[in-house]
Write a structure and sequence with these properties.
Layout (H helix, E strand, L loop, with lengths): L3 H9 L7 H6 L5 H26 L2 H7 L6 E7 L8 E7 L20 H11 L2 E7 L1 H7 L1 H14 L7 E5 L9 E4 L2 H4 L1 H24 L5 H4 L5 H10 L12 H6 L1
């Protein structure tokens, strides 16, 4: 009779919930074997559920594939709301039907998984572009226009150029056909890929700013108006990376 360890090793090699090994082992009355069966079935069901979720997030891409369009760029940004730092946009072209486990709207990915999924996107992507517009540009043209400029910069870096753009809730003045998708980072894998690239890029920038301007907790709040950030503003004043068109920074500068 095989040991429980040996059975666990056999279970680890199967990738189908209907595998006959499950039927064979169900007759083994040992509690450890039954626990191992249950555990492996849960793991496989989790994989099935994740594959279905990813498949659902490819709906917009699959519609374009049927039209012979394969170079599809997802476009997204992060950093529209913070009081400090740049707005960062990313444009990502993934291979046809590319599924990266765990890829989702960056706000739904645990912080501990950001770098891992970011690296997976870098490894799989056909092309990636990144656009950055700092606080000075944001103050000059407003955050909405600065976001557009960052997206245009990101798309302009793509090689090859995309045949179609999937953009998170935005329309751009470009000759490339495009689809604006509400909550796009949760409904398109291409946009989700752009979301995590933009997020990790901006977070790394804010971590560096935290070293340059300590006391505002930039490494943790990414420039958003948290209690520690606001306390830093009161105690230390406005830094060169703060957005002077955003309150309460605007009133502090006027005072």
């Amino acid at each position: 009779m095989p040991t429980i360890k040996e059975i666990k090793e056999r279970l680890a090699t199967i990738d189908d919930l209907d595998h006959p090994l499950f039927e064979e082992l169900i007759l083994d009355g040992r509690a450890g074997v039954q626990a191992a069966i249950s555990k492996r079935k849960r793991e496989l069901q989790k994989q099935v559920d994740e594959d279905l979720r990813l498949e659902k997030m490819l709906a917009y891409e699959k519609e374009l594939y049927t039209q012979g369009i394969h170079l599809i760029a997802g476009v997204d940004e992060v950093g529209r709301g913070p009081l400090a730092g740049p707005v960062v946009a990313a444009a990502v072209i993934l291979p046809k039907a590319c599924k990266i486990p765990g890829l989702n709207d960056s706000k739904k990915i645990p912080k501990s998984k950001h770098k891992e999924i970011y690296e997976a996107v870098l490894q799989n992507a056909i092309a990636i572009g990144i656009g950055i517009k700092d606080n000075h540009v944001i103050d000059q043209v407003n955050i909405y226009e600065a976001t557009k400029l960052a997206m245009l910069e990101a798309i302009g870096q793509l090689e090859p150029q995309p045949q179609h753009l999937l953009i998170d809730a935005m329309k751009l003045d470009l000759p490339i056909p495009q689809t604006s998708i509400i909550k796009g980072d949760a409904n398109s894998l291409s946009i989700a890929a752009a979301s995590i690239v933009a997020k990790v890029t901006r977070d790394q920038m804010m971590e560096e700013f935290d070293k340059e301007y300590p006391g505002y907790d930039f490494a943790k709040n990414a420039g958003y108006g948290t209690a520690k950030h606001l306390a830093g503003l009161v105690q230390l004043g406005v830094t060169p990376i703060h957005r002077r068109s955003f309150e309460p920074v605007k009133s502090m500068c006027e005072d």
